[in-house]
Amino acid sequence: MATEAVHMTALHESVHGAVEPVAGEVTSVVRRHRSLARFGAVLVDLAYFERFPIAFARYVAGAPQARSAWGDTFHEKGPTQLLEALLRRVRDGRASAQAGGPGREQVLAVCLGLASHLAVDVVSHPLVHRIAHVRSHALGTSEAQEHQVIEKFQSAIFHERYHGRDLLGRSIYFDYLDVPALEMINDDRFWRLLSECMRESLGRAPMRDEMRAWARGYRQYARIVSSPMGRLVATSRAKEEAFDVLYRGKDFNYDDVFDEARSRSRAYVEAAYAYGHGDVDRDDLEAAIPRQTPDPVHENGIWIP
């Protein structure tokens, strides 16, 4: 429920952080187009936010979430192919304003955010899937429900430690999460390019109004978790109980997981930038950012971001 913040933090830390930041020219692109890079960091998760107020009510009630067919498609097919399709258009100029696109650097910024997202998923998902599998059998729940619970507490605990305070339920959290998703989808030049890339990489593309609904749902998500209702996501007592089970177990420490994700994000972002600029070829890109093994679809057919 609060996990998109992990993608925002990993992008920020890999680009601007004091620990091994990316090359200066990459930082400059993200600085000039910060909102677009942040949009890229959540792009492939947007489908999960359709009708978010209903999903939030089900979550608070402890009910299983409804299936997201498009969410499954993005994660089963693998978002790496979508990244490659977008980067090819940056590289060959089809993304340029002269060619009717939104601008090469603007699309590159989206790609850098998406590359960071892939890195976080590659590092964090194996641990989440492993814990979810064990917990679902022990508790009689679904792996999808446990996936959601695990990532929620890992994100909530991590960010409370990272910021020095809990941002859930605080208005400042909205700015931390909000991205111009609806604005980008409403941009005709960007929509033409994105829908073409989705058809090329996924075999099909959602309708524009579908993606608009996802974008509105994501903004509702940002508003809800930054309102007093956001405190229902993870209470102080619940975080204390989850710490030694979901955050720091016998053979894992989420701090270490995030450190690895940040390092992988930096490598993926630099590789995406180099390919988009024509500095490396496709083999170099695929060596740096391997095509992902699709996420497993849980028994109720949904992967929860």
Order of helices and strands: HHHHHHHHHHHHHHH
Look at the structure and give the mean pLDDT. 89
Number of domains: 1
Label the structural class.
Answer: mainly alpha
Helical amount among residues, as a percent range? Answer: 55-70%
Structure description:
It is a single chain. With 305 residues, the protein is mainly alpha-helical. It has one domain. The protein contains 15 helices and no strands. The protein has helices at residues 4-16, 24-32, 34-42, 52-61, 69-77, 79-92, 104-139, 143-163, 172-177, 181-186, 188-202, 208-225, 236-247, 254-276, 282-288. The termini are close together. The model is unreliable at 296-305 (pLDDT under 50).
Topology (SSEs and partners):
Blueprint: H1 4-16, H2 24-32, H3 34-42, H4 52-61, H5 69-77, H6 79-92, H7 104-139, H8 143-163, H9 172-177, H10 181-186, H11 188-202, H12 208-225, H13 236-247, H14 254-276, H15 282-288
Helix pairs in contact: 1-3, 1-7, 1-14, 2-3, 3-7, 6-7, 6-11, 7-8, 7-14, 8-13, 14-15
Keywords:
single chain; 305 residues; mainly alpha; 68% helix; disordered C terminus
Summarize the structure.
By secondary structure, this protein is an all-alpha fold. It contains 15 helices and no strands. The relative contact order is 0.20.
